[in-house]
């Protein structure tokens, strides 16, 4: 089924190849708030790097003649956002592998701050404004807790440039102090934003790689096919 989707998308969007610089600007945002311990942080960095280089995800990156632009940052408190991977056009498999290596080999910059998701989303929106010109823009924000510092997602969507931007969520269940249903509900009601937004759930950080792989496939294939609509 994935092979058929990839082949169909490549044929349908070939005529758009010269129109813009890239088909999707994809921003990945990792939670490094105080609820994420060192072991969990290693699982999410390694899991994201492994998901990016999974064979089916690599194939999805190249489902269209137009490349994907990729960036990654970590977030926690109000002023604790750190860029891990600046904008990189993924034109060939080696580009993707180098980007994954940068993310997988990155070091955590903060560990003692709360969950300031509004600030994190604002940082992502600002990052998109200086990114390459793409047909679609998506922020992929993962976390294991609800906003508990500063303004929330709703205000971020009002105050920052989110027109045409999709925000997808990855809920990481398993924190002792977070209710599973409440966290999924929070993401569903307050975090998801824009056209085609969706939520994936990881059952703990051990499940991060599986959930992120599934999430990336949906983001990449959906946008490749959407170009032909």
Helix-strand layout with pairing:
Elements lengths: L1 H12 L8 E10 L6 H15 L2 H7 L6 E8 L5 E10 L2 H12 L12 H13 L4 E10 L9 H7 L5 E9 L6 H12 L7 E5 L4 H19 L3
Parallel strand pairs: 1-2, 1-4, 4-5, 5-6
Antiparallel strand pairs: 2-3
Helix pairs in contact: 2-4, 2-8, 3-8, 5-6
What would you say this structure looks like, in words?
It contains 8 helices and 6 strands; from the N terminus they run αβααββααβαβαβα. With 229 residues, it is an alpha/beta fold. It has one domain (2-226): 3-Layer(aba) Sandwich (Rossmann fold). The protein has a 6-stranded mixed β-sheet, sandwiched between helices. Helix 2 (38-52) runs parallel beside helix 8 (208-226) and helix 3 runs parallel beside helix 8. The longest helix has 19 residues, at 208-226. It is globular, with a radius of gyration of 17 Å. Residues 1-18 have low confidence and may be disordered.
Offer a few descriptive terms:
single chain, 229 residues, alpha/beta, Rossmann fold, six-stranded mixed β-sheet, 8 helices
Structural class label? alpha/beta
Biggest sheet statistics: 6 strands, mixed
* CATH architectural category: 3-Layer(aba) Sandwich
Tell me, what is the CATH class? Answer: Alpha Beta
CATH level-four homologous superfamily name: von Willebrand factor, type A domain
Shape: globular
The number of helical segments is 8
Order of helices and strands: HEHHEEHHEHEHEH
Mean pLDDT score, rounded? 87
Output the strand order for the largest sheet: 3-2-1-4-5-6
CA-CA gap between termini: 19 Å
Question: What number of structural domains do the residues give?
Answer: 1
- CATH topology (fold) name: Rossmann fold
What's the β-strand tally?
A: 6
The unreliable regions are: 1-18
């Amino acid at each position: 089924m994935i092979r058929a989707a990839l082949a169909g998308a490549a044929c349908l969007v070939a005529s758009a190849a010269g129109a813009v610089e890239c088909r999707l600007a994809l921003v990945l945002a990792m939670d490094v708030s105080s609820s994420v311990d060192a072991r969990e942080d290693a699982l999410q960095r390694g899991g994201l790097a492994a998901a990016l280089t999974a064979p089916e995800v690599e194939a999805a990156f190249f489902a269209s003649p137009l490349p994907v632009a990729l960036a990654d940052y970590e977030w926690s408190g109000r002023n604790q956002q750190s860029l891990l991977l600046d904008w990189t056009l993924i034109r060939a498999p080696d580009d993707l592998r180098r980007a994954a290596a940068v993310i997988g080999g990155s070091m955590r910059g903060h560990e003692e701050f709360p969950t300031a998701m509004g600030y994190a989303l604002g940082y992502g929106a600002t990052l998109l404004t200086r990114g390459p010109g793409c047909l679609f823009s998506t922020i992929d924000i993962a976390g294991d807790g609800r906003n508990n510092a500063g303004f929330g997602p709703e205000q971020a969507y009002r105050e920052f440039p989110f027109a045409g931007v999709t925000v997808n969520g990855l809920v990481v269940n398993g924190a002792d102090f977070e209710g599973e249903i409440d966290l999924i509900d929070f993401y569903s009601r307050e975090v998801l934003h824009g056209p085609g937004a969706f939520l994936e759930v990881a059952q703990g950080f051990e499940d991060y790689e599986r959930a992120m792989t599934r999430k990336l496939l949906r983001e990449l294939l959906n946008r490749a096919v959407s170009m032909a609509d």
